[in-house]
Write a structure and sequence with these properties.
The protein has 816 residues and is α+β, with helices and mostly antiparallel strands. Helices cover 47% and strands 20% of the residues. It is built from 26 helices and 26 strands. The strands form five sheets. Strands 18, 19, 20, 21, 22, 23, 24, 25 and 26 form a nine-stranded mixed beta sheet that branches. Strands 1, 5, 6, 7, 8, 11 and 12 form a seven-stranded mixed beta sheet that branches. It has a five-stranded antiparallel beta sheet with strand order 14-13-17-16-15, with helices on both faces. A hairpin with a 3-residue loop joins β23 and β24. α1 runs parallel beside α2 and α19 runs antiparallel to α21. The two termini are 80 Å apart.
C-alpha cells in the first residue's frame, strides 16, 4: 500500500504554484483543441475517486503539469477499466493510462515506453495456506479484474476458473464478503484497499505473479496523438516528477512479514526492559544516595510536563481548525447538493431523510417540507407505490443500480413522468439507506409517444400501400390473362403472316407486362408477410435443364455462349419450392442476357454446406457484360431501384427483379450477393437452404451438366434456328432501298423513338426478308424497351448482309 500524504488543499496549492512558475503556451497549429485521457478509477495512488467523486492521484497532477507545459487542455476521466478500454477503442477517448503492454493488445493499441514497473501478486485468505506458485492455484477459483493482463497470464498457464469483476473495488468487496478467497491484483491498489478495509491480516500476499511494465497507449494507428503526448511528457523535468512521487507515493507501509519481525524485536525489548527494571531495583539504594541527581531528574519531568501541556494546547487548536474545515466542506457539499439540476434524496426505510432544493421544486413542495415524509407522497395510487417497493430494494441490496421510468404525482395532484435511479450507500448495511436521483422526463416521454404514433401511422400507410398494389396487380392480371389467352386462340386460327407477327408481338408484350405484374404482386405479398413457400421434391438437373431451354434462344439471338455446371457432389432430388427457385434463376439469367453484348453466360450450382437437416445450395450466374462499379452495387437488391437510375439509361426494367430475388432467398434461409468489375462482367449469386430427398435416382450415365468441383463447365451446343436468311439482293437499287430502310430504323433506335413499332409495321416485309433470323430477337428487344440491344442486333444483321448504314447517330447512344 502506498501512503497518500498530501491533502486536497496542498494539492491545489501545488497546482497554483506550478501554474505561476512554469511557462505555458498556445498549442501549435494542427494539434487538438483538447486531449481526452481515461484511466481506471480504482487504481490508487495513481488514479482514484475521492469521497466527492472527483479524480485524485499521481496521474491527475501529472496531466495538470502536461497541460501547463503544452497549453493543450486535458479532460481526464476516471472510469472502470473495461469502460476505459472501450472508450479508447471506439474513439471516445485519445489516451489510456496504466495499461500493460501485452502481445494480445499489440493489435489494438500503440504503446509508449514504459514509465513504471508494477508488481502483480496473488492474495489469499488466511484460511488458505501453501500457495507458492501459479501451479498451486489449480482447483481454486481466482478473482480477477475484467480485461486485466492477469486474466491472460493465468489462462496461459491453464488457470481457467476465474471470477471476472468490473473493478478493483468490486473485487475487494467480494473478498470482504469471502465470496472470493483468492484474487490477483496489482500490489499498489491491493495494499491500499486491504489496509483501508482493515483486511490486511485476513488476506496475505501469497506470491508475486509477474511484474508488468505500465505504459500509456492510444488506439492503433493514432501514433500522432502518442507522439504529442510523449513530447509533452518530455517537457516535465525530473525534479517535478520526483516532487509528484514524493507527494503521492510516500514511503511504503511495512508489510506483514516485516511486522512480524518487528514484533519479535519489541518482545525482546520488553524482556530487556524487564531485566532493566530488575536491575534498577537493585540500584535503588545508590539512587537514594544521589538526592541531587533525583531533584534534577524531577525538574526535567516538570519541564516535560510543561511541554506536554503545550503540545496538548496545540493539538486542541489543530482539532478546532480541522473541525472548522470539515464544517466548510459540509457547507460546500450542501451547496452542490442544493444546486444540482436533478432531484436528490437520501431515503431510509422508505422515509425521506434529506432532499435537495430541486426535488422540492419537482414535486411542488416548500423547501424542507418533504424531509420526514414517507415516499408514498410520490405515487398517485397504491399500485404505483408497491411497484417501487420490495422488488426494487431486493435488487438494490444486491449491489445493483436500479433505474425505472414511472408517473409520479406532485403536491397539487398533477402527474408527471420521471426517471428514478437508486443505489445503496452500502449494500451490506441497509440501515445506511439509499440515494435516489429523480429527473423530470415529461418532455422526453411526450416526444417518444409522438414517435410511436408516427411509427404506427407509417406502418398503417405501408400496409395500405401493399394492399393497394396487391389489388391493382390482381385487377391488371385478370384482363392480361384474357388478352394472352385470346391471342393464343387467334394464333390457332391460321392468321396471315403479318397478322401472326402482330399477334406474337401482342402475346410477348402481354406476357412481359404480366411478368411485371406478377413480380409486383409477389413483392407486395412478401412485404406483407403473406407469401408462403410451397415445398416439395424436385429434380435439380431437370430444373436447370428447363431454364436452359428458356434462355437458349435469347442467348443465340445475341450470339452468346451458354455454359452450365452442376457440382457432382450435389444430390439430384431436393426438397424445396422449385417454382420460386426457377423464378430467381430467370431473374438472374434475364439480367445477364440483357447486359451482355458478347461473350458468354455461365450458370454454376454448387454445394455450399451440408448437415443433418439438409444442405445449402449456392447458384451463381456469370456474364461477360458491362459490369457494375462499387457505387452502383450499393443500389442493387433495393425495390424499384436500378444501378443506373437516370432517365437516360441504356437498359430498361422496373428495378424490382433483384429485390424480389433477395426477399425470396431470405424466405428460403439464404442470401444474395454480387461480384462485378466494370468492363469485365458480373457474377450474381444466391444461396438457399433445401432438404434432401430420401430416395435419390441411380444412373450409370451422369447428367452432362454435372462436373467435379474445379472442372470446367459444359458448353451447350448451338440451337438450330427456324429463320432462313434471305440472300442479299443483287441489284444496286435494291441494296440502296434496303440501306435507307435499315438506316431509318437505326436512327429511330438511337433516338429511343417509341414509334419505332409503327416504322417496323410499315416496312415489315422488307425488314423480315433483310434481317432474317435477327428479326424476331430485334422485335422482342423493342417490345421490352431494350433499344440498345435492338440496335446491336441491327448492326450485326446489316454487317452480315454487307449493307452499310447511313449512321447519323450520336457517338454515345441516347437512351431511356
Amino acid at each position: 500500500m502506498i501512503a497518500l500524504r498530501v491533502t486536497r488543499r496542498r494539492g491545489l496549492l501545488l497546482g497554483v504554484l506550478l501554474a505561476l512558475c512554469l511557462p505555458t503556451g498556445l498549442a501549435p497549429a494542427g494539434e487538438p483543441d483538447a486531449l481526452r485521457v481515461v484511466g481506471d478509477k480504482n487504481y490508487p495512488p495513481y488514479l482514484f475517486l475521492d469521497p466527492d467523486g472527483e479524480p485524485r492521484g499521481y496521474l491527475v497532477d501529472l496531466w495538470q503539469l502536461w497541460e501547463q507545459k503544452t497549453g493543450i487542455p486535458v479532460a481526464l476521466h476516471a472510469t472502470t477499466w473495461g469502460e476505459a478500454q472501450r472508450r479508447v477503442l471506439s474513439g471516445e477517448a485519445d489516451v489510456i493510462e496504466n495499461i500493460f503492454h501485452t502481445p494480445a493488445r499489440e493489435a489494438l493499441y500503440d504503446f509508449s515506453a514504459p514509465y513504471a514497473t508494477l508488481p502483480t501478486a496473488i492474495y489469499a485468505h488466511e484460511s488458505i495456506q501453501g500457495l507458492r506458485d501459479i501451479d498451486s492455484l489449480r482447483g481454486l477459483r481466482v478473482g480477477v479484474l475484467e480485461g486485466d493482463v492477469c486474466v491472460e497470464h493465468l489462462q496461459q498457464h491453464g488457470i481457467d476458473d476465474l471470477n471476472l469483476l468490473p473493478s478493483y473495488r468490486a473485487l475487494i468487496q467480494e473478498a470482504l464478503r469471502e465470496d472470493v478467497k483468492v484474487f490477483c491484483m496489482d500490489e499498489a491498489p491491493a495494499n491500499y484497499y486491504l489496509y483501508a478495509a482493515g483486511a490486511h491480516k485476513r488476506f496475505r500476499r501469497a506470491f508475486e505473479l509477474y511484474q508488468g511494465q505500465s505504459s500509456r497507449a492510444v488506439r492503433k494507428g493514432k501514433r500522432d496523438s502518442l507522439r504529442l503526448v510523449e513530447r509533452g511528457m518530455a517537457q516535465i523535468s525530473d525534479s517535478e516528477r520526483a516532487a509528484l512521487r514524493r507527494q503521492w507515493m510516500g514511503q511504503p507501509i511495512i508489510d506483514g512479514q516485516v511486522a512480524r519481525h518487528l514484533g519479535w524485536v519489541i518482545l525482546v525489548l520488553v524482556l530487556a526492559g524487564a531485566l532493566l527494571l530488575f536491575w534498577t531495583r537493585l540500584l535503588r539504594r545508590q539512587v537514594r544516595s544521589k538526592t541531587r541527581e533525583l531533584q534534577q531528574a524531577l525538574e526535567e519531568v516538570r519541564q516535560a510536563q510543561r511541554q506536554s501541556d503545550l503540545a496538548r494546547d496545540h493539538l486542541e487548536q489543530e482539532v478546532t481548525d480541522r473541525t472548522a474545515a470539515l464544517a466548510a466542506a459540509v457547507e460546500e457539499q450542501q451547496i452542490i447538493f442544493d444546486t444540482a439540476t436533478s432531484g436528490i434524496a437520501l431515503i431510509k426505510d422508505r422515509v425521506l431523510q434529506r432532499c435537495n432544493r430541486r426535488l422540492h421544486e419537482l414535486f411542488g413542495w416548500p423547501p424542507g417540507s418533504m424531509v420526514g415524509q414517507p415516499t408514498t407522497i410520490w405515487y398517485p395510487d397504491e399500485a404505483a407505490n408497491i411497484a417501487g417497493g420490495e422488488s426494487v430494494y431486493a435488487h438494490i441490496w444486491k449491489g445493483e443500480s436500479h433505474q425505472r421510468e414511472q408517473q409520479l404525482v406532485r403536491r397539487d395532484g398533477s402527474l408527471f413522468w420521471a426517471r428514478l435511479t437508486g443505489n445503496a450507500i452500502d449494500c451490506t448495511r441497509p440501515e445506511k439507506g439509499t440515494v435516489w436521483i429523480i429527473d423530470d422526463i415529461s418532455a422526453e416521454h411526450a416526444t417518444l409517444e409522438r414517435m410511436r404514433e408516427a411509427k404506427a401511422l407509417a406502418e398503417e400507410a405501408a400496409r395500405a400501400k401493399s394492399d393497394f398494389l396487391a389489388n391493382m396487380s390482381h385487377e391488371i392480371r385478370t384482363p392480361m390473362n384474357t388478352i394472352i389467352g385470346m391471342t393464343h386462340l387467334a394464333l390457332q386460327a391460321d392468321p396471315s403472316a403479318r397478322q401472326r407477327d402482330y399477334l406474337n408481338q401482342i402475346r410477348d408484350a402481354g406476357q412481359h407486362l404480366l411478368d411485371i405484374v406478377n413480380g409486383i404482386l409477389d413483392f407486395t405479398e412478401i412485404d406483407a408477410g403473406k407469401l408462403k413457400l410451397v415445398p416439395g421434391e424436385f429434380d435439380l438437373d431437370q430444373l436447370l435443364e428447363d431454364l436452359v431451354q428458356q434462355i437458349t434462344r435469347p442467348c443465340e439471338a445475341k450470339g452468346l455462349r451458354l455454359q452450365v455446371m452442376i457440382e457432382a457432389a450435389l444430390p439430384r432430388r431436393l426438397i424445396g419450392d422449385p417454382a420460386r427457385l426457377r423464378q430467381i434463376l430467370m431473374i438472374y439469367a434475364d439480367n445477364a442476357i440483357k447486359f451482355t453484348r458478347q461473350g458468354q453466360i455461365g450458370i454454376d450450382a454448387r454445394l455450399a454446406a451440408q448437415d443433418e437437416q439438409g444442405l445449402l445450395l449456392r447458384v451463381a450466374v456469370h456474364d461477360t457484360g458491362i459490369g457494375i462499379d462499387a457505387a452502383q452495387r450499393k443500389r442493387l437488391f433495393q425495390a424499384f431501384l436500378q444501378a443506373d437510375g437516370s432517365k437516360s439509361r441504356k437498359y430498361g426494367g422496373t428495378g424490382l427483379g433483384l429485390a424480389l430475388a433477395q426477399r425470396l432467398t431470405a424466405l428460403m434461409g439464404g442470401s444474395v450477393g454480387v461480384d462485378s468489375e466494370p468492363g469485365v462482367g458480373s457474377t450474381f449469386w444466391f444461396t438457399a437452404r433445401l432438404g434432401i430427398a430420401t430416395h435419390q435416382p441411380r444412373s450409370t450415365q451422369p447428367h452432362p451438366y454435372r462436373r467435379p468441383a474445379g472442372e470446367a463447365p459444359a458448353a451447350l451446343p448451338q440451337l438450330p434456328t427456324d429463320d432462313v436468311d434471305t440472300e442479299a439482293p443483287a441489284t444496286p437499287a435494291e441494296i440502296a432501298r434496303r440501306q435507307a430502310i435499315l438506316s431509318g430504323l437505326a436512327r429511330r433506335l438511337a433516338d429511343d423513338d417509341f414509334a419505332v413499332g409503327q416504322y417496323i409495321d410499315e416496312h415489315h416485309t422488307l425488314l423480315t426478308e433483310t434481317l432474317g433470323r435477327h428479326f424476331r430477337p430485334l422485335v422482342n428487344a423493342i417490345q421490352h424497351y431494350d433499344f440498345h440491344t435492338a440496335a446491336e442486333l441491327l448492326d450485326r444483321a446489316a454487317a452480315e448482309r454487307g449493307i452499310p448504314l447511313d449512321d447519323q447517330r450520336p457517338s454515345s447512344p441516347v437512351t431511356d
